[in-house]
Amino acid sequence: MKKWMALLLLMTMLLAVAGCGTTNNGDDNGDVLSGTVNVDGSGTVYPLMAHIAENYMTDVAPDVSVQVGRAGSSAGFKMFIPGETDLSDASRKIKDTEVEELAAKGWNMDEQIMEIKLAYDGLTMVINKDNDWARKMTREEVVNMYLSGQYKADDKVLWSDIRPEWPAEEIKFYGPNENHGTYEFFYEVILDEQEMVTTAKLEQEYSTLVDLVSKDKNAIAFFGFGYYVNNQDKLQAVKVDFGNGPVEPGLETIGEDLPYAGFTRLVYTYLNLEYAKEKPQLLDFAKFIVSEDGARKLAGDNGFAPLPDAIHDDYLSTLESIQ
What we know:
By secondary structure, the protein is an alpha/beta fold. 37% of the residues lie in helices and 21% in strands. It has helices at residues 2-24, 46-59, 73-80, 96-104, 139-145, 159-162, 181-190, 206-214, 225-229, 273-278, 280-289, 295-298, 309-320; strands spanning 35-41, 64-68, 87-90, 113-128, 136-138, 172-176, 201-203, 219-224, 235-237, 239-241, 246-247, 264-272, 305-306. The longest helix is centred in the N-terminal third of the chain and has 23 residues, at 2-24. The model is unreliable at 1-24 (pLDDT under 50). One of its GO terms (biological process) is phosphate ion transport. It comes from Alkalibacter rhizosphaerae.
């Protein structure tokens, strides 16, 4: 009897070990996943994608190395189009010219390239903590203050030019540079492609923008809501009036049908499906991004509003059909 019980216990332990191997670190064939996944692109999307990658490597596939960069949306596509990266994060939709460049490589959208909507972001105007006058602005004031020639020929705009009761001190304009989708969204959508004030200083690193605004009470900058969330101890967000009273950006207000819709945008990642067919670790990571443990779960932790589950469920079905 004792011998039979020992044999049963041994079989149970062996089955448990085998089960762990296929559930936590294997592909659909039960093979252990390994290798690398290369992601680059949007600095706005970076905190969310880095968090997803960290959880994937910790909880799902410890032998896979997911490398996430933050060169900027446009700079990311310059690496993605020639095939240097597997996934390209973007804080704006891919441009027609970029789609044409991919097609020239033999990679067509929706055939070899898959667009994945990750979450909603709210463009956030940030000011210094000591600024006690510009905490609420209308959308029109935000747009006009950034337009070249709107107030001064030399674009040395004073706060009092916006509202007479505000200080007669020069505004220091900041924002991300042309490598970033956030710049393109601000210029193309918010400013409607009108020339930006020549006095605006555009930076590559978001951390530099945070530092500059936090040290100058006359500074103002724009970037994604996530960077504001992570730096609320140094900055304050401007409440924007889109016509129905000032609205503070937040997970409860950011969305296409919510009060902060005027400054809401989608953020994306683009997947090379040809590479996903060749690299099982890439396909598995892409599935994780749109799984219940991926973007939809981690969006809120990183300052993004999650999309409806049905959108990512559809992406997951598509990826699961890939052989």
